[in-house]
Amino acid sequence: MKSFKNILIDKIGLDEELYFALEKTLIRIKLKKKDFLIKEGETCSFIGFIKAGVLRSYILKDGNEFNIDFYLPDSLVSSYTSFLTQTPSVGNIQALSESEIYIINLSDYNKLLKLNTEYYKFGKYVSDVLFIRKCKREASLLMDSANDRYKFLLTLFPQIEQLVPQYHIASYLGIKPESLSRIKHLTYINEKVLLKK
What we know:
The chain is built from nine helices and eight strands. By secondary structure, it is an alpha+beta fold. The protein has a four-stranded antiparallel sheet. The chain has a four-stranded antiparallel sheet with strand order 2-7-4-5. It has a domain at 2-116: Jelly Rolls. InterPro entries: cNMP-bd_dom, cNMP-bd_dom_sf, RmlC-like_jellyroll.
């Protein structure tokens, strides 16, 4: 959990004693490919940190799946609106590969907040990271072309094409898999032209 420790101590400024108290509350979860971390209709009672593996969140509409986010190693994962409001999740979070996640459940989280107000730094970090990701994705969907959304995805997740099937990436971008193939082909041609100059 070195990267999680680095985030809490170096980025957030939690002291080591408080970090180790938080670490003691973490529960290790292992998922197989296609296992669910949470399903639609369940209430989310955790914030997770991914040590290994890849997950996706998606919603179902009229029998179709629409990917809304991906979670790679060293990232946070939660159905955060459900967590904050303690109402049923509208989406699903599913493992795309064997995954290892460390979670803090809601009751332990609340106990830590009561124990020491310094833990609010952790809460603020979680909300900031998840909120900013959500806003950037929404803005990109509304304002960017499919090609620009693809480039944005690659800046967010540089290794995603090696980790996630193309049809899942296309769903996240809001396009058909064949459209993604065309975008990738044009990107490849443009890069070759630039290299020749």
